Amino acid sequence: MKKFLAASALASLALVSAIPAALAGKADDTLNIVWERELENVDSYFNTAREGIIVTRLTWDGLLYRDPKTMDYVPLIAKSFKWVDDTTLEFELREGLTFHNGEELDADDVVFTYNWVANPDSGVKTQRNVNWIKEAKKLDKYKVQVMLKEPFPAALEFVSGSVPIYPQDYYSKVGPDGMGQKPVGSGPYKITEVEPGKKIVWEKFDGYMKDGPKGTPTIGKIVQRTIPERNTQIAELLSGRADWMWRVPADQADRLKSSGKVQIINEETFRIGYITMDAAGITGDTPLKNPLVRKAISYAIDRNAIVQALVRGKSQVVNSACFPSQFGCESDVTKYPYDPAKAKALLAEAGYPDGFAIDFYAYRNRDYAEAMLNFLSEVGIKANFSYLKYAALRDKIRSKEVPMAFMTWGSYSINDVSAITSHFFTHGKDDLALDPKVKELLQKGDTTVDSAVRKQAYSEALKLIAEQAYWLPLWSYNTNYAFSNDVDFTPTSDEIPRFFTASWK
Amino acid sequence: MLVYTLKRLFLALLVAMTVSAITFSLTYLAGDPAISMAGETASDADIEYIEKLYGFDRPIVVQYFEWALNAFRGDFGESYYFRIPVADLLLERLPVSMTLGVSAISFAILLSIPLGVLAAMRPNSLLDRLALGISVVGQAMPSFWFALVLIVMFAVWYPIFPTTGSETWVHFVLPTIVLGYYATPAIMRLTRTGMLEVLGSDYIRTARAKGLPQHVILFKHALRNAVIPVVSLAAVQFGFMLGGSIVIESIFALHGAGYLAWESIGRNDLPVVQAVVLVFSLFYIVLTFLSDLLNAWLDPRIRVG
To answer: Which end of chain A, N or C, is surrounded by fewer C-beta atoms within 10 Å?
Structure first.
């Protein structure tokens, strides 16, 4: 017995001494952030997740930067920029910039990066980000021209977000694998440690530009850990082992807020929900081919009630097939307020006085989808509901098996309707409307540089989409950010947390 | 015995091959890997580009045999998602699952066998009821809930144990308790039934009549016989602890192989799913193979029949 006591005393002593000290936040100038997703690669050209965009913004700079408040494009690595003609952009670069490894940043690096990503053999995962680039040319040490394949006014958006500049010497030496393991950028924070999918550590880059639009970083160190379970994240936040998390569900946000231990801020995001309907009849002869039926469905669903009860936060009902802040997003379109009587009348007029049955699919927010099912059944539409994984559903849509689905789209945070409306209504595989007039208008908007002409074309297209009820736009999404009382953090509607502007209180 | 061993070995190999073929086709049914890889915001062009890049446009049978042939040579290919060799990923993540599995099954055995023996010694006593209570609670309580309760108690209220990570053995304390407790009821009840049966048999009565001390009867004569079915059960449970720890691994952010498999299914990262399933099914097969052999060695009737 004595032996046993001694052994257990020893064991408990070992236990206590082996416990790592709780990771303090403000005290050791380390911001501990947690998120759910395992990031496949820190190299932004080889990941597709939103977390990847966060990492990119922290670690790398592009030629331009989009101010998250004014949504204007301002020079970042560039000192100034101009359109030479419809397909040529010219940039003058800041002098004296360096990468984290000390390598000087000049025209060679810019030209190298643009030409490398423009080549499909590079394997850049999101080709859309780069496939508008024809080539880049060096004019002198601090001046470059980027040539476009065709007029593409949204190019500035991509220049400012999706094409971070890589160090030529280092990248030619280590390649994508080396960059994934030991990344080198020129952004406000430098990466000092990477455990693939598990952990990333940054330190403030002391050599960062002083008067740039991204500001000067103040927090010394940032440590990201992947914690798949949200409740565990909350436990970490409450016990002070984590300082920041996002995507807290509304009910848990309420409870966290009332605990007083953390701050909660809700912010709207670019993501919108919508119901897509097979107006073109590509899945067969469904009632949805009749515009009266599509309008009836639009009147039948009380979007306001779903936003109030389920989506909550800063979310709002949207009426046009785009996010309101996006360039060209016309909000003066045909609206379909909740009106079940009108929906029934329209159905009767269309020849379906007793309603009909239709297959209806969704891949996220099952609760929202079920609320919609209820509203539909109230006007006599019986929806056979299937809930699938995203890849499976998108596969099904593309193989023409889905007449009606509740989908969402985040526009990859691009503030231009070409990232959403043009994506879905220019007769691609996700287009269930196949309206030639809409396609023509959108393509005009996509390839004209004159912004007044673009706006006009997009406005006409969006009015047509709403008038024909090809989509029922639903609502914008929102995110709850929860963080320690010591942290000063401001979220933005593009859903890209910018930790370089965060500070300690 | 040799013929029997060879027969079992052949069967085990067949099982491994069947499992891998089924997983391969099932993961394909779950959706086009190119769509998952391209991400939620991909355009048509992005998806087609990836299909070509990875050769998803070829027939599935061709893709399967190519994979199987390479796997046979020990080359599991590269993860579509992480772009690093699957073997490296497994080497990094398997030890976490193994540590958790071994510690959980040890915890379960150390808790359930003594409890089972105690319960069998005094059937229907308070002690028996208590043991039964522990096992019923263990069976009824969902492990994710138990895990969260432990986290709230030992990480938020009384910050004694870390909640996430796998750096030191302390990180494994809470996950071990949760996962091990899950395996406890079955082992405990099998031990108890086995012991009750054995304790009522003639040779134990003889042993008692000989005046042998209680602990010799219990542990030398009774438990040895009662524990035979428990060994096979524990082997199966151990396989379960290795593969079935997905929930626990994700709650405690352990980043083990079970969680890797789960996430890879969602990402349609076929090479990883294939390799993890193959490795786990091999574990299972080896464990059942060993317990088959053990049983055959213990009981000659099995080999003959």
So the answer is: N
